[in-house]
Automatic annotation (TrEMBL), chain A:
InterPro entries in UniProt: Bact_solute-bd_prot1 (IPR050490), Chitin_NgcE (IPR022386)
Biased composition (Acidic residues): 40-52
Xref: SUPFAM superfamilies: Periplasmic binding protein-like II
Domain of life, per lineage: Bacteria
Segments for region (Disordered): 34-62
UniProt source species: Ruania alkalisoli
Protein name (Swiss-Prot/TrEMBL): Carbohydrate ABC transporter, N-acetylglucosamine/diacetylchitobiose-binding protein
Gene3D superfamilies: Periplasmic binding protein-like II (3.40.190.10)
Family: Belongs to the bacterial solute-binding protein 1 family.
TrEMBL record, chain B:
This protein's name: Sugar ABC transporter permease
Any GO CC annotation of this UniProt entry: plasma membrane
GO biological process, one term: transmembrane transport
Lineage, top ranks: Bacteria, Bacillati, Actinomycetota, Actinomycetes, Micrococcales
Family named by the database record: Belongs to the binding-protein-dependent transport system permease family.
ABC transmembrane type-1 domain span: 99-324
Compartments (UniProt record): Cell membrane
Composition skew (Low complexity), residue ranges: 10-19
Residue ranges of the region described as Disordered: 1-28
Zinc-finger found in the keyword field: no
Membrane topology listed for this record: Multi-pass membrane protein
Chief location category: membrane
UniProt keyword annotations, A-Z: Cell membrane, Membrane, Transmembrane, Transmembrane helix, Transport
InterPro entries for this protein: ABC_transporter_permease, MetI-like, MetI-like_sf
């Protein structure tokens, strides 16, 4: 199935991409508090020079003629060619204009001087491990609501073409500070062909997972494995399971950094189940010293372990290192009991790859490129070449371009219906670097559930007590 | 730096004739400001000084100023907060941990590297046969070339290569160890264990630098007149005695300089640590100051706070250099005529 795939992303950029895609989701809810508290949403001026062309249906933002649009795009798991695709359309629809697409893996380091100097790019994909914290630049960004309210190339208002709720995570107060372009589904991924061969069924609860681990062990396989930079994928899995089990209150306690939030029953239940798996030897040893793409290849290529919790970028990320006939599929993360509060099909899904338009740039040009990217044509191109859905609805055909993983994403989304949830506190407060070492030690067996809980709580407590960090009230 | 050979040559150190390009007297009085003289000063003094001020001193001052602000780094706005950043730093367990790790590197890496480099250098220069001409062990030229190989590889590549070699499942090290029947190293995570992560990282850095410092010491030892060794040998000194009583004192200045160079590198160590353990190692046991600084600036958008860390790093480095000078002095460095 993978033979059809066209592009081959560089391995190292992909590696960055993974963690980052994970991290880059709707980053900075942090900023919400700045926008609402500090005031001045209204101050957003409409960019500097607006020599501007006429506004019309074809040119809703009045982009001037003969413009060179300056776009800096994160060159991660998805590459930059999907933006170049939209750039070609822009060059056709605006004769004389063109787009300069600059790939970058270090957005913050490269763009920092440009932001300070007042000449930022017109459009930025602020993603990756080196992305800019939203709280640092929120007041220098355009409100993108007018992009959403503009017609797309096919003439439909863009707002009517998007999945529900995809804009909420990047909306601060009334301001839409970023448009997250790619829809990500989180879950646990496995090889359906391997499972069929062995007569296994993917687990829906942690008890079933442990049984599967025992069955795998008989064949000298492991249930789980991890890589050192991606150990917190298991934290994501644990939080997903706990939120499913305990409902919104579990999520809100974590999001609002409450005291003892990691001691909630649902979370402790999942931690205990994980510890059982660790102690039973169901985790492939050595993960804390293994590079995460190498660890992922132990799953997708040499199939040394069965299940891997991750976001849906995993298929694209491991494209080159997935064995023939793997038939990748995903399930929603295991629940603790058979009747969890949010339902067994509840799903963690959110949009990633935040595109921003800095106010000091040529905002009309940046918005115009973004508008073209949100057209059906560009979105279909993205889905077909990257095997991932964008926030634009109905761009993935029933056969998922031959990708079982993409089909299973669509299935998971429709099965979940309304019970789709997300959480942002880890990224909002930049906790991941500190949590990684803790999870590495927990997964290799050297920390108990009590250690894990108290150390994660200590990070939460420190941030809650630190007055210099803006808190985001989540409800 | 010059070798301290003047005493041996029988010349009082002060009377060495100047060899550098000294502007000789041109027609008339020495102090006259001729065009020639002025252009000379501009080119050889003014230009470097200007570059130094603009690109070295100015950033220092800027960083010093930013360390007193709460600058986020992405907007021109900033507020003066005085020494608040430094007070916070002193109480920040993440940073104090990083300082501790850097200090460990600063103590261990130079000592181990230079000891090994010195031993190799001595073997290659005077470790050979006990009769006839003073020479190194057999095949010295070969060893000399081979041991420089690691230094030719860029640090980042060294880090990435060793990360693969140390990989728990498919790495060379565990492959060899389990091949020898040591089954406890099956899937052993060298870089993922609190007890082994730091030693393994230090090993990689040492591996990368021994060759270069060995070459430096060889050059220094070659500068010692062979007659000195011959005289010592006639007096009955063995190779160990010659190394300890002749070689070491005479290349003392080289060792001191090398110590400071590699010490500064070890206090930074960013490239190696970032390649080997980008997330800071198990329980942050290999997280160094420069990594924490980068994280603070670009991930947490606290440039003012990060600048304060930079100032602390500069201070730690200065203290380190001062310590090396002091130790060298206290152990008799200046008596041997080493100080130039």
């Amino acid at each position: 199935m993978n033979a059809k795939l066209t592009t081959t992303p560089d391995r190292r950029t992909v590696l960055r991409g993974g963690i980052i895609t994970a991290a880059s989701l709707p980053l900075g809810v942090t900023l919400a508090s700045c926008a609402t508290g500090g005031g001045g949403d209204e101050e957003t001026t409409d960019g500097g020079e607006e020599p501007g062309g006429e506004t019309s249906a074809d040119n809703p933002f009045g982009m001037a003629e003969n413009t060179t649009v300056d776009a800096v795009i994160f060159d991660g798991g998805y590459g930059v060619d999907y933006v170049e695709f939209a750039a070609d359309i822009l060059a056709e629809t605006h004769e004389g204009s063109s787009v300069e697409v600059s790939p970058s893996t270090q957005i913050a380091t490269e763009l920092q001087p440009r932001f300070v100097g007042g000449n930022p790019p017109d459009l930025v994909d602020n993603s990756g491990a080196g992305s800019i914290g939203f709280n640092a630049i929120l007041d220098q960004l355009e409100d993108l609501n007018d992009v959403i309210d503009a017609p797309n190339l096919e003439g439909t208002t863009i707002r009517d073409t998007l999945y529900d709720g995809v804009l909420a995570p990047s909306t601060y107060g009334d301001k839409l500070a970023a448009i997250n372009y790619v829809l990500t589904v989180y879950g646990v991924w496995y090889s359906s062909s391997l499972f069929e061969e062995n007569g296994w069924t993917p687990p829906t609860t942690w008890d079933e997972a442990l049984e599967l681990g025992a069955a795998a062990k008989e064949q000298d396989l492991y249930l789980f494995g991890w890589g050192t930079e991606a150990a917190t994928y298991y934290q994501t899995l644990a939080i997903e399971s706990a939120i499913k089990e305990g409902g919104d209150e579990v999520r809100l306690a974590l999001e609002n950094l409450e005291a003892d939030c990691w001691s909630q029953d649902a979370i402790q239940g999942v931690f205990a189940a994980m510890k059982e798996a660790v102690d039973a030897g169901y985790f492939k040893p050595g993960g804390s010293g293994t590079q995460f793409t190498a660890a992922q290849a132990q799953w997708s290529n040499t199939q040394e372990f069965l299940l891997y919790p991750s976001g849906s970028w995993i298929e694209n990320e491991m494209r080159d290192q997935t064995t023939e006939g793997f038939e990748m599929k995903g399930i929603s993360s295991m629940s603790l009991t058979s009747s969890p509060a949010l339902g067994a099909d509840a799903l963690h899904s959110t949009a990633g790859e935040p595109f921003i338009v800095p106010s000091d740039g040529n905002t009309a040009a940046g918005k115009e490129l973004l508008r073209i990217m949100l057209s059906k044509e560009s979105a279909e191109n993205f889905a077909a070449t990257k095997l991932a859905p964008t926030i634009v609805r109905d761009t993935v055909p029933a056969d998922g371009f031959g990708s079982t993983a993409l089909v299973s994403q669509t299935d998971l989304l429709s099965a979940a219906g309304e019970s789709i949830f997300t959480f942002n506190f880890v990224n909002t407060y930049g906790m991941n670097p500190e949590q990684l070492p803790i999870w590495n030690s927990f997964l290799d067996g050297s920390k108990s559930v009590a250690d894990l809980t108290s150390e994660l709580q200590a990070i939460t407590d420190r941030i809650r007590e630190d007055d210099t960090i803006d808190k985001v009230e989540v409800s | 730096m010059t070798l301290s050979g003047s005493v041996i040559d029988g010349q009082p150190p002060n009377q060495t004739t100047p060899t550098g390009p000294v502007p000789g007297p041109r027609r008339g009085r020495r102090r006259k400001w001729t065009l020639d003289r002025i252009t000379f000063f501009i080119v050889f003094l003014g230009l470097p000084l200007a570059l130094f001020l603009i690109f070295v001193i100015n950033p220092f001052i800027q960083a010093g100023y930013y360390s007193l602000t709460n600058w986020s780094g992405f907007s021109p706005e900033q507020e003066f907060v005085g020494l608040q950043n430094f007070i916070t730093l002193a109480q920040d367990p993440r940073f104090t941990n990083a300082v501790g790790n850097s200090v460990v590197l600063g103590l261990v890496v130079p000592f181990v590297t230079l000891t090994i480099a010195l031993i190799f250098a001595i073997l290659i220069t005077i470790g050979g046969a006990g009769r006839g001409q003073i020479r190194g062990v057999k095949g010295a030229g070969f060893y000399r070339v081979v041991s420089l190989f690691p230094y030719v590889i860029p640090g980042i590549a060294i880090g990435l290569i060793w990360r693969l070699i140390l990989d728990p499942s498919s790495g060379l090290v565990n492959g060899v160890l389990t091949g020898l029947g040591l089954d406890q190293f099956e899937s052993f995570a060298w870089l993922g264990n609190v007890t082994t992560a730091m030693p393994a990282s230090i090993f990689v850095i040492v591996w990368g630098f021994v060759g270069f410092y060995m070459l430096l010491f060889i050059a220094a030892i070659k500068g010692i007149p062979a007659e000195t060794y011959e005289a010592a040998r006639l007096d009955g000194a063995g190779r160990a005695r010659m190394s300890w009583s002749i070689t070491l004192p005479l290349i003392r200045d080289n060792v001191q300089t090398a110590y400071i160079y590699i010490g500064i590198m070890a206090l930074d160590a960013y490239v190696y640590m970032q390649a080997l353990n980008p997330q800071g190692g198990p329980d942050s046991s290999t997280l160094v100051m420069s990594q924490q600084l980068f994280r603070t600036a670009f991930t947490e958008s606290k440039f003012g706070y990060a600048s304060a860390m930079g100032v602390v790093i500069a201070l730690v480095t200065l203290v380190f250099a001062a310590l090396v000078f002091t130790v060298n002095r206290l152990t008799g460095g200046k008596d041997d005529g080493g100080a130039s």
